[in-house]
Amino acid sequence: MEKHFVCIVLLWFVAAASAQKTPLSIKDVDSTTYALFLKQDWKPIITLGKQSIAEGVDFYYLKVRIGIAYFKENKMFSAIQFLEEAYALDPKNVVVQDYLYWAYRYSGLEMESRLFYSKMSKALKDEIKLDLPVVSSISFNVLAANNLDYDTQLKSNANGQTDHFRIIPEKYEMYSLGMSHPISKGLNLFHQFTLVPANSVKQTNIGSVLQNETYKVMEYRYYGDVTIALGNRWYLDTYLNAIFGDYDNLNTVTSDSKIKYNNMVFGGAITKASYLIKSSINMSVSNLNGFNQFQMGYAMSVYPLGSTSVVPFGSIQYKSQDSESNMVFTAGLAVTLNKIALTGFGTVGNMNNFIANNGAIVYNQPATALNEFGGSFKYFGKHLVLKVSYSFMNMESNYYDGNFEIISKTFEFNQQNITAAITWVL
User: Fold this and answer.
1) pLDDT digit string (tens) for 312-335?
2) Angle, to 10 degrees, between the axis of helix 26-38 and the axis of helix 60-72?
3) Is there a contact between 306 and 276 (Cβ–Cβ < 8 Å)?
4) How far is CA 69 from CA 106, 108, 307, in A?
5) CA–CA separation, 284 and 45 (whole Å)
């Protein structure tokens, strides 16, 4: 019986030893990945390379081959990770320099590629011949927004009282012309001028008869954003949005036909683009519509595939306005297929005098956006980018008393926004 037990134990150990995988060696991994590299068989290089590194077998040429394999598979952020590691070990390898430069460019880290260009060999510089034009891109955007409930609200005001009135937005447009200027390899300026005409109606209930009076606004905006590349994929943005305009004076007590206003938004953001996540912390101050605002938040984009093909993104923003404060949440998904990018998003929270996209978007309408859901289609051509987008917003606005003071009573309406944009890349 004892002999049988010993035999069973020995057979178990033999079977267990046979079942174990042979540990990888540098020699085997080197020869196999080199052969695969010569055959341009990129996916097995990535698979074997990840397994090898997980088992503690890692060396310079493995990093190079994995980085190039990811590059060939259009997974630029993963390529950057391994090519940067290889470059740190041997900065003079021109093959690594070349692939790393273009990986920065194709992943959207153009300013990082400019900084890296200064470190490249003279032969590669002569081949690439990086030039910084006075203007690198010109963009033109048109947005049309309209109140979907406008016709109904003109005819009915169930909550109206004779001593109250409301401003019903009808429509507004935004016409924007922007330009980007690479001031230096580590400094870029984008600025944009926007014209915003808007039409609304002042509605008063007089003896159960609705009286509608046209109300027009003309607004002008100048936006400027300076981006500084700090190195190692860190970026600092400082931005300014100067807003000024005039609107019809509906208060007959005063003699001026127009009332002028000037508002300012000033802020900044610090961004880190890592291999799988891009994170940004932003902060801004503003004085929109006679109130003082402070806003700060965190935004994140995730690259789960090591590329820009599928990118979930989101942000959380804290906004305070005088004595009130609230949170605003955004989440979305961007999918890029060859030359086409599709994006869907949703934003929820009180967006009264809210700042988005590093100050480029300002929600300063008298009505408050409670949520916004939408999407966009983008086409990338050789020298131009075309974009069409749509969004739907649930809006809320207040009534006013006879002294033109805001009261607590509100009404809601739905708004749609349609945008068309074209960017010429010079």
Assistant:
1) 999 999 999 999 999 999 999 999
2) 30
3) yes
4) 15, 19, 13
5) 46
Name, in order, each residue with C-beta under 8 angstroms of 10's C-beta and a sequence gap of 6 or more.
none
CA-closest candidate to residue 158, choices 373, 410, 402, 403? 410
User: Can you tell me which residue has the tokens 């039409």?
Assistant: 199
50 backbone dihedrals φ, ψ, rounded to 5°: -65, -40
Using one digit for the tens of pLDDT, what is the confidence trace for 34-81?
999 999 999 999 999 999 999 999 999 999 999 999 999 999 999 999
Given a contact cutoff of 8 angstroms between Cβ atoms, the answer to whether 96 and 105 are in contact is no
Alpha carbons within 13 A on the beta-carbon side of 41: 12
What Å distances lie between residue 45 and 64, 70, 84, 189, 367, CA to CA?
11, 9, 18, 41, 56
Closest by CA position to 268, among listed 226, 330, 319, 317: 226
Contact present, 94 and 124 (Cβ < 8 Å): yes
> Whole-model pTM?
0.89
Are residues 284 and 290 in contact, defined by beta-carbon separation less than 8 angstroms? no
| Token pair recorded at residue 190 | 């984008």
Annotate the chain with three-state secondary structure.
CHHHHHHHHHHHHHHHHHHCCCCCCHHHHHHHHHHHHHCCCHHHHHHHHHHHHHCCCCCHHHHHHHHHHHHHCCCHHHHHHHHHHHHHHCCCCHHHHHHHHHHHHHCCCHHHHHHHHCCCCHHHHHHHCCCCCCCCEEEEEEEEEEECCHHHHHHCCCCCCCCEEEEEEEEEEEEEEEEEEEEECCEEEEEEEEEEEEEEEEEEEECCEEEEEEEEEEEEEEEEEEEEEEECCEEEEEEEEEEEEEEECCCCCCCCCEEEEEEEEEEEEEEEECCCEEEEEEEEEECHHHCCEEEEEEEEEECCCCCCCEEEEEEEEEEEECCEEEEEEEEEEEEEECCEEEEEEEEECCCCCEEECCCCEEECCCCEEEEEEEEEEEEECCCEEEEEEEEEEEEEEEEEECCCCEEEEEEEEEEEEEEEEEEEEC
Kindly tell me if the per-residue pLDDT of 250 is higher than 80. no
Taking residue 162's Cβ as centre, other Cβ atoms within 10 Å add up to 11
> What is the model's pLDDT at position 414?
98
The answer to whether 258 and 249 are in contact (CB under 8 A) is yes
